[in-house]
Amino acid sequence: MKTSKLILLSLLTLCLCSCSYDSESDLIGASGEPVDPNILITYTDNISQIMQSACIGCHSSPPVNGAPFALVNFSQVDQRAAGILNRMSRQSGAPGAMPPSGRLPQATIDLVERWINDGQLEN
Ligand code: HEC
Asked: For residue 57, how far is its CA from the centre of ligand 1 (angstroms)?
């Protein structure tokens, strides 16, 4: 009886830990939720997920649907950071707005801006 309670407790702990880990990776993902203002934004932790979920449908390697370049790795995104922020900041439906399907949440756009202000770190 005692052992099974212990096992149950450790399973519960394990579950709780993995749950909180999940929600943390949601926070730093492309979900548009606020990210801890004290952390530095990096390509690997934050920006690549946004590109993956919202951009590489067209900006893949090779690019498709008329997109002019790929945004699948750090150097491609790093080189074009200012243009990326500019296109993402345009209002939905405005000419050249990215992604064309509609503006991403402001918090997601803010993350790209923070990444640029933090020095466009890779890791
Ligand atoms: C449905 C396909 C599609 C998706 C998704 C998409 N793009 Fe584009 N993108 C295009 C096309 C087509 C062009 C070329 C036409 C233009 O410049 O508006 C383009 C152009 C651009 C340009 C300007 C290119 C230049 O010549 O300077 C940038 C920057 C850009 N996209 C960034 C993004 C970012 C960032 C995302 C994700 C947030 C994204 N795009 C998502 C299709 C897409």
From this structure: 10
Query: Which residue, chain included where needed, has tokens 């790209």?
Result: 112
Q: Convert the pLDDT of each residue in 94-107 to its tens digit.
A: 999 999 999 999 99
Residue located nearest, by CA, to atom 24 of ligand 1: 68
Q: Ligand 1: which residue has its CA nearest to atom 23?
A: 83
Is 54:104 a contact under the CB 8 Å cutoff? yes
42: helix, strand or coil: strand
Q: How many CB atoms lie within 10 A of CB 18?
A: 9
pTM reported for the whole predicted model: 0.80
Cα angle, residue 118 at apex, residues 117 and 123 outer, rounded to 5°: 140
